[in-house]
């Protein structure tokens, strides 16, 4: 079971998965005002390859956005591709 952790300082944030005490999968976002966040970067290390870690990280951002009633702009190419393939994320897409 992958535990997804979250940090947010009000300006930027990240969801991440640790392996051996180090972030092995990360998705980083930046706030654009109070109603929108922009996914800037997604990265998954070798230890998590093939486990859908990247998709789980994108899903964490989507769930967070729904909770906070904000929109998401997936600028990073990976997150953008996941949004394109997942029509049920259109409710939070900016």
Automatic annotation (TrEMBL):
List the InterPro entries hit by this protein, alphabetically.
Acyl_CoA_acyltransferase, Gcn5-rel_NAT, GNAT_dom, GNAT_YJDJ
| Keywords of the record | Transferase
Family matches, as SUPFAM superfamilies: Acyl-CoA N-acyltransferases (Nat) (SSF55729)
Domain N-acetyltransferase: residue ranges:
1-94, 7-94
Q: Which Gene3D superfamilies match?
A: 3.40.630.30
The record, for Pfam families, names: Acetyltransf_CG
Q: Which domain of life is it from?
A: Bacteria
Q: Which GO terms describe its molecular function?
A: acyltransferase activity, transferring groups other than amino-acyl groups
Q: What is this protein called?
A: N-acetyltransferase
Q: Which organism is it from?
A: Filimonas effusa
